[in-house]
Amino acid sequence: MSKSAPRGDAAGSADDGDETDESLVGEGVSRREDAALLRGEAEFTDDLRAPGMAHLALVRSECAHGDVVDVDTSEAAAREDVVAAFTWADVAASDAPGTLPLATGPLDCDPPEHPLLARDRVRYQGQPVAAVVAEDRYAAADAARAVDVTYDEREAVVDPAEATEQSAPDLFEEVPNNLALTSELGDAEETKAAFEDADRVVSLDVENNRLMPTAMEPRAALARWSAGDERLTVEMTAQAPHGERRKFAHSLGLTESDIRVVAPRVGGGFGHKNTPYPGDSLAGWAAMELGRPVKWTATRRGNYLAGNHGRDHRTRGEVAVDDDGTIRGLRVETRANAGGYGLGAGPAMPANYGTLLASQYDVPAIHCETSVAFTNTAPVHSYRGAGRPEAIYVTERLVDAAARELGADPVEFRRRNQLAPEDLPHETAVGASYDSGDYEATMDAALDAVDYADRTATERDDDGRYVGVGVACLVESSGFSFESGVVRVEPDGNVRAYAGTHSHGQGHETTYAQIVADELGVPYETVAVGEGDTDRIPKGTGTFASRSTIAGGNAVAESAREVREQARQVAGYLLDADPDAVALDEGTFRVCGSDETVSFAEVAAAAYGPGLPDDLSPGLEATTFYEPEGTTYPHGTHVAVVAVDPETGDIEILRYVAADDCGERVNPTIVEGQIHGGVAQGIGQARYEQTAYDDDGELLTDSMQTYAVPRAEQIPEMETRATVSPSPRNDLGVKGVGEAGTIGAPPALANAVADALEPLGVRHVDMPLTDERVWRAIREAER
Ligand code: MCN
């Protein structure tokens, strides 16, 4: 990475002039993408049509674990309007390998890759067994129902702890005891010693409930094969188009340059559009087989059955504390569910999970053991937060429980152990390297909003409800790997910026334009932002792990700086002045101390026109592959105030305050929107959502009637506060914010409910905190 002067720092007389007083970065500019979305003018994958297009429907297994004895497609194939019906035998007879690559995440074992259609065995309900292609969507769906599959059923296992027992059925011969991964972080001996020395140990068993990502738009793909130039184009719902291109190459036996992946508007991803799925690869495969465009759109049930799920951890956590309130150590043992097939360890990956267990505290010794097991359930992988919410939930519940056991105020207990700004950078006992932040100041910002200092004891309101306050502090990790950023000035002076990330709700079109306009010194309106096309954008990494602003934002910023320098050289030539004496402000170059000017558009025209002197290269364009210097660590404190009805278990969220610090904010309004969305999803996890399987691996929550995604009326008013600790690890000083809400909300609410119910003797209620669970916990405590 080549370093240039940080934003706002001017070097030399001309650069002084380059800095306009009105920096767009930091302004709450309205999202430019919203008008088309609100008017219904934006095109999503399912809106796209192609001449001669056919529709693909999947036949999904209703059996969670069994051998496939027979797949009879004869009746389906004979139906009117059906073009073809495919099974694994057809895929195997083609040139395509027909299997999906493992998603990111290390495994200890080497299980078979996921076949596009079941080969000889199914390992989760919803696994595709056959595919039907028809002239229209309805004919395809009806014909799919006419496919007759015979299974020899096997015993299923759905619980990750049971899956590793000797008596459990094995999913893969290659994977003894279904153990996908075991990992250990921290020093076991040091932690043991800390526990022996400490005055007391507080422990808690917690479950991080399994969630099903519910984007408004289900997964979809439209694939076209061009026989003329032997290229496959797939327009699809993707968070990382270049990663999808690699997947198509792998599953279809093509080279990456044979494939173009385009992600148009995408109606939410939340992590689950960043892992490989059979449906879109099958659309590509069928398009090649049939020589006509093929579209596949998942149904909501298909999305729930076989889109990757999230969380699903069972954890025993212990904290060693001294009576004066000092944390001495933390010990955590987690059983995580990988679901069927080897998607990877996802939310149990040590880098996303164990490394964050210190939260905001100075914990001298931590030991974390994780085991991840395959089960006969949908593959589990990234869902907004992907390991971070699981880690912070464990620590923040434990810290609260320890404070209560010591009779200390949970806030004062946190304050005693919080890292101070001067402690940073700080290497935790589990290898995270925190970059910057004033944790206490952010916590106080949230607490002041609810007048925490004036609080006396747990109160009852006029309706007899118990009122509780829950505090959750968080540190998360964001930014990962390189990103590409291209900035090109067109001959008319308009600017185009491209990045390898993809916005599916985050607002990059606005925030990247703010960054580029600032760095280049041109009006915001002249900057257009493009993402999501592997033919137009050099290799990129994609949008996940709240990495786009750090990696993509800095990539376009660096390209913009380079282009500004190119333009200044051309301006110097046009103005017959030393380029170092030429300054750019809001689209006009001026010779410092004079009235001589030339517009940015004139400079652009000259840069591409004839007559440039030999020492100036034509064109105004730069490409940057930006690799951040290291992970950044955003932080925050979320506070929830709740009232719990002891008769019904009903919880009302009276106040919700989120104070977050994501370094320099490119657009505070968008940042606030990201917090709101994340908190809403966090409230969903804390209060309502629970994926349920029966013992045979049948998904009981396979629709939005049975899976309780919260509705607007169930989400309270939220208040946000912000502190700003710039990250020293990238030029813009930014940290990610896309996942903070899902991390803070679950422990804040669980702690609030525990606080409210303390007088009743309830110590812990597992999420989701449904009325019934809370009611049962109260009755149990009464007994
Ligand atoms: N931002 C900013 N200043 C910062 C940090 C971020 O102005 N210091 C702005 C960004 O420029 C961007 C937005 O906030 O417009 C989010 O940025 P960032 O934190 O970099 O996260 P990403 O853009 O990489 O988005 C990924 C993150 C993740 S991992 C999930 S999951 C998620 C999320 O964002 N899925 C979302 N937010 C989502 N929002 C919507 N609407 N839909 C999803 O699917």
Describe this protein with a few key phrases.
783 residues, alpha+beta, five-stranded mixed sheet, globular, disordered N terminus, binds pterin cytosine dinucleotide
Provide an overview of this structure:
The protein contains 19 helices and 31 strands. It has 783 residues and is an alpha+beta fold. The protein has a seven-stranded mixed beta sheet with strand order 3-7-1-14-11-12-13, sandwiched between helices. Helices cover 28% and strands 23% of the residues. Pterin cytosine dinucleotide (MCN) binds next to helix 14, helix 15 and helix 17.
The strand line-up of the biggest sheet is 3-7-1-14-11-12-13
Task: Determine the mean pLDDT.
Answer: 94
- Apparent shape: globular
Measured between the Cα atoms of the first and last residue, the distance is 64 Å
Percent of residues in helices: 25-40%
How much of the sequence is in beta strands? Answer: 15-25%
> Which class do the helix and strand fractions yield?
alpha+beta
CA gyration radius, whole angstroms: 28 Å
Hetero groups in this structure are: pterin cytosine dinucleotide
Helix and strand arrangement:
Blueprint: H1 12-18, H2 34-38, E1 54-60, E2 66-72, H3 74-77, E3 82-86, H4 88-93, E4 99-100, E5 114-115, E6 121-122, E7 128-134, H5 137-145, E8 148-153, H6 160-163, E9 179-186, H7 188-197, E10 200-208, E11 220-226, E12 231-236, H8 241-252, E13 259-262, H9 278-290, E14 294-297, H10 300-306, E15 313-321, E16 327-339, E17 365-374, H11 388-406, H12 410-417, E18 426-427, E19 433-434, H13 439-449, E20 459-460, E21 466-475, E22 483-489, E23 495-499, H14 508-520, E24 527-531, H15 548-575, E25 582-585, E26 588-591, E27 597-599, H16 600-608, E28 621-626, E29 635-644, E30 651-661, H17 668-688, E31 719-722, H18 740-757, H19 771-782
The chain binds pterin cytosine dinucleotide.
